[in-house]
## 1
Amino acid sequence: MDITPGRAAAPARTLPPWTRQRIGLAALAATAVVLVIAGWREIGMGVLPLFTGIGHIFQFVGQTVPPDFSNFAHTVNLALITVCMAIIGTALAMVMAIPVGFMAARNTTVHPIARWVARAIIVICRAVPDLVFAIVFVEALGIGVLPGVLALGLHSVGMLGKLYAEAVEQIQPEPREAVTATGAGRLQNLATSVVPQILPSFSSITLYRLDINLRSSVVLGYVGAGGIGFLLNQDMGVLQFRRAIGIVIVIFVLIVVMEVISAIIRRSLIGTETPVTSAGLGRRPAFGDRIIGAFGRSRRAPAAARPAPARDIAAFDRERVRPPWTRERQLRFSFAAGALVALAVSLVVTRINPLQVFTSAGQIWHTLTLYFPPDFSTDRSGLVSGTLQSASVAIVATAIGFLLAVPVGLLAARNVADRWAYRCARGFLVLVRAVPELILAIVFVVAVGLGLVAGTFALIVGTIGFMSKLVADGIEEVDPRPREAVLSAGASRLQETATSVLRPAAPALVGNSLYMLDVNFRSSTVLGIVGGGGIGFLLQQSVQVLAYRTTGAIIIATFCVVLLIEVITNWVRKHLI
Amino acid sequence: MSDVSPDGQPAVRVHQLTRVFGQTKALDRVDLEVPAGQVLAILGPSGSGKSTLLRTLNGLVAPTSGTVEVLGCDVGAAHGAQMRALRRRVGFIFQQFGLVGRLTVLENVLAGALGQIRFPRFGVLSYPRRLRLEALAQLERVGLDSRAFQRSDTLSGGQQQRVAIARTLMQRPVLVLADEPVASLDPESSAAVMELLLRICQEEHLTVIASLHQVELARGWAERIVGLRDGRITLDARPQDISTEEIMEIYRGTRPGQDPGSARPAGPAAAFTGQLRY
């Protein structure tokens, strides 16, 4: 029935018009389906091996109990070294990433060329997996903690620089303009109007990276970068499963403890802040802040919570004009002092001589030259198929992980799930995330045998852990008002969730899964090392037989694929979402 | 009311100033001269170029063409240390206050002293004690000294603008530019803030150029009213010589009695030169 009498002749149009965006999204969806099917067949994926392999898992688990803690002191000692490695690596990355971040931010860069260089550094550091850096540095400096620290540091510069730059670009411009107007110099202005605004985001981002680096530093041990991963690799190598599971338990506890500590720090330090991103400017929060919001709930915190009571502040020494020791100031000072102490202790414990980086620069350079020119010809077919396999693993794992992460994420969102489901889901996520992907991969290798399928399963679990958190966070940010409206229109609970929760959250979900694809491809290189197949397997082989130039070729291939994924996802994010 | 400052120099001299942003002409051949000590209000609809004009006066926006001379300094040609030296003498009060929300009130006021000292500063204690005491005294003048160590984003809008005024006073300015200083405030705090700003400027014999959108407020305290529309000066008069209705015409774009014999300049077509002296 036509309700507009004036236009009775016009045919009723019930399909939305095909805008360029809709065509693009449809093409994206179609491409994704095709790629997932192709990847699935490439891997030889199936759910069946999981069930047939259950016997193997039980058998394996049987070999691991009771866990052997006979070497407990040594294990804990190495675990501590792993923590120290993560701390020093993160500190190193922070020092390098701060100038990079400022140069890469549109509003603080000194020159377009400087911005371009900074962005290139960010992309390169992100695209080379930390494991690859570790392989190179272990080759140059020998087995030990320092190569691990350098690898973590260099690789983290990519993410930190990118997120720092995003945080800088999100600052309110008004205070900057005002401080400029007082006649302050460039650096003075930066210190007075920019730094205070970005401090909460910077600390949050850095803490988040510390969490990631702790997980990575376990993995780096596998290629000789010291710490507990090295021990784990040794024990696995000689099939000492009971000892190995003891180490795994220590790692698990370590990561959970670390996560809890950083959550506490974040809540007490940053949870009281309103990060610049949500300063009522109506801008979409940066991706990094969305990740961080998922951890610290910082953006849920009420604006400017807990300002110190006015009477405490009114009472200050007017002669000396010194700020009173408010709770906020105490917290900030103790955090800064704590961070410095942790760094100092780490340097002492690991006996790292920072100067060694400079004294061994020649060695590092010499090692780098070994990888060049890269040799693409010796194992060309292996290189191509390995890259394709790793890409397939990443695509399939991202797709399946995404499908499973949406329901888990819904359960972990407090505005959708009921209280108990919420708590269980959040607890489940913490546990899943505490198991490094490497260990997941080992379990799946045992269950379904060496190869791509094991790697894919490991990545799927990893994706669920990471992605569900992002999904849950995206959903918790959904505007509640339309939900009320949809409910009062008589929609069922499921209808309401679909219409007023999933629909508005969809762009963020697509954006996050694209990001996940990027992360998963890099992880798939790591998994190859424990038998997860793909390009990582080739990498491991070429390193073992000292075929440096083949290694170089593999590194460059990995780099190119990561870059390609990044370019595509950036384009999609910009034009379609 | 003095015609010129003791040295005979006007505080601001703008000649044929044009500023183009992309396709839009924010300012179109503006001529304006402001004698030292004058309190001038700029009126005009949004997008008429008020903010751009004020920002070209302290070099926050560079002119596309024309000359801008402020306190004897050619703003268009100044840069680096010269520009900073000029800005130190020119206070600027923003509609959005421009306070760094996470910093304490006192540190925001101290930012006004950055032009006098060298090196970046972190925290109140990194400023010399002399400046800390002075900042506290300025806060006392705006009545907020008891809030010195409160975070500035916990203050109300009117209080924040008073902090911004204290920051400007910290510069010891000769000229104060105010861009819609009370547009974000409720009527009650508007009046209080405006009163405070004006009183202090009178005490210090400062030249004031403020853009406003409340006509009555402008009539109340300005010695001279300049109307801007589409980047051109369409009105320049003393408040006592002109009715509110005539001022309102800036907003409508047409003026009654646009006869050539009219004593006052009328509309953009009048090619008013802005050379009127009071």
## 2
Amino acid sequence: MRDKVKYMFLMLSFILIIAGIYRGEAGEVLEKAIDICLECIGIG
Amino acid sequence: MGSFKRRMVQFASTLIGNGYFKGFAKGTIYRGKLKSFCFPGLNCYSCPGAYTSCPIGSLQSVAVGLKHQVSLYVIGLLMLIGTIGGRFVCGWLCPFGLFQELLYKIPSKKYKMPKFLSKLKYFFLTVFVLLLPALFTNEVGIGLPYFCKYICPAGTLEASLPLIIRNAALRRAIGIMYYWKLLLLGVTVILAVLFSRPFCRVVCPLGAIYSLFNRVSFYQMNVDSSKCIKCDICNKNCPVDIKIYENANSPECIRCGICMGKCPTKAIGSGFKTGKRRMEDEKVLDTGSGTHSCH
């Protein structure tokens, strides 16, 4: 049973990554991460 | 030897993940395409040396935007890493975990963390990382990365301090929030000297996510119950204070492997277990001469 669950999670993770890339989220992550996050450093 | 190997991997991971040294020299950050990938450990993407993004920062940065409230991409990446190794990342790859381990080496009186506090990290994950950034937005629908803004001391250490030192414009913008973050970092440092890995155990939302996969991950810890004499040496040396012989794949286990090196009877093992490998283990156990797989 546990084996089935881990393979299910593995498959689901690939599906989520592909769906996320398809929705343009990798670009969104990049767009935010290339600028200094002022909130993270306690200024924003 | 195992402990030395792990320390080297921790340093290598920290250096590779933060290898953009030009950023430290100039007080700027890396702006290349690698930033669309997430680092597996907690590593602020505003660190001048960071080549990749922080997964917790990315989860929030997508949620605070106008397009999506949940990032399937980041959740998928974290699920993939968790399914492979569970909290292996915490014990071997996380720069902030390494920072706390080094602080704990400072000689002082050491204290045990009350166990119930470990549940708090799920609160920080749910409220500060998932709910608040997606639900509390301004008039135009933009939210805030609440965990990064109000809680995370990793950003202060890895990003804020090096940037403020080298960047005059940022220095001029310092306000009350900066001092709040500095205070949080100071408290974390003091607690990390007194308690083993306090941030990982009580606050870290990334550890909370990976912990959900410890039981089902491909990488598993196991204890041979026929060899274990319950001497508790594993527990006394465990950085997160668990009894591995009671629950080999506890959500709290960071898979550092210290217990394996300390066990006098070599009862503790670990490895990648697939269905085929598990059946082979069980077959050996049936003959009475093999190791006991915990799952």
## 3
Amino acid sequence: MIFAGCDVGSLTAKALLMDEKEDIIAYEIMNVLPNPVRSAEEIMSRALKKAGIGLDDIDYCVSTGYGREKIPFAQGNISEISCHGRGAYWVNPAIRTIIDIGGQDLKAIRVDNRGELVDFIMNDKCAAGTGRFLEGIAKTLNVKLSELGPLALEGKDPVSIISTCTIFTQFDVMHLIVEGTNSADIAAGVAKAMATRMHKLVRKVGIKKEVAITGGVAKNQGVVKYLEEIIKSDIYQFKDIDPQIMGALGAALFAKEEFQRSHRSE
Amino acid sequence: MYIGCDIGTGYTKGILMDNEGVIKASCIIPTVANPRDASKTIIKELLNGAGLKESEIKGCGSTGWGRSYVPMQHRELSLINSIAKGVSFVHSSCRTVIDVGAQHSMVILVDEKGQVLEFRQNDRCAAGSGRFIEVISEALRVPLEEVSSLVLNAKERVNVTAQCAVFAESEVIAHVNDGKPVDAILAGIIDALGRSLVAIAKRLSVVEDIFVSGGMAKNAALIKVMQEHLQKSLHVAEPDPRLVGAIGAALLVKEVI
């Protein structure tokens, strides 16, 4: 049997396929297309192709993310908060706190010892602390988003970032470049500012070990390092699985659960 | 002669003022995140244009984000005080100033002498500043100076819900993909900015006459929208709404020297 999770966010679309033993068969991540439905169709067909199966082979599909209600091939949809919590807990059942950084939002999620959602808080009103913040800074520094983390680790003397607003920070960075500040110190300062922002949010739900970061920003080792310094605790690192896929993984797990529930009641 | 400089995040403005308070010359150049070079250029332009030497300047007042970079002896002044002074000097009937710069917006209540009575500002977030329009016009590939006339002629207006400039940009792109006309999208954006500014003004009891200054005061569509939301008439600060900070800085330095 095949269960699928499809997570269409504001910047990237993700799809994951698993079988009834909860073994992951395939997953794919791509940048979104202008239309969420087309993004979902494209990413799911990529994952299916990788698995060598077709859409008809899926027994149950759950969608999540900002475009979740519009996905035509999904039988159900569940909020990304529940899906990220579920996905991270499945990978490591010791996880209690999840900081999920999406393209356009920042969430702090707490789960209990059964992986059930206890509390969450989110910012989706302002780009500060979201993926868009780092994207804007990478653009101003003229580096790839994936280069920002390694660059931040090279920084010895992180600059202090005063502005909260993404647009204003981009301007501050331009000014620092003009003044001759090296880009590693700028990237380090930006990573530190991002970590500070994340900490302000996550402490509202309570920081309980293990702490994990999901979403694309989890790949920025600079941000991880500074957040570890601030919370004085290690952050769990996803090893064999992409931290960006957690939402789709959680959705696939919910798909399996929903399928089994509906078949039991029949 | 006196010099007044206002080194903003968007533009650097400078004026030359004689002992009677008459503006003899003015100059406006983009700052491009380089206040050092911009202030050097502006001082040079003002002095060379009038055939003056630095020693002939009795005082130089500087204000704005990059005020400390002015490459001659100067006095640093608060932007709020400078704006209040500059607008009141030209318009004695002014009791409220709404200033919209590249990275800030402020509403200032002034007395008949141009002194600040009370103010509210937003300098934390691009939502209520010129940068908001700049980001959107860049995304839509519309030159900034064409925004106002496009909006004034727009037949419809989309609803922009995001306050954050970054998120508004995404919203705008979604509207473009939906096939909405560019002028209707810009009308929605100008309306959103107008609402943010009026929200700041409403935290004070604004008194007429009300003058608008800063770079965004040149946007007639924005003035119109703000008048609608505020239900009061607004005037654009003379001689150029962008120069009020520099004028005020020159006047304030003239008072103390």
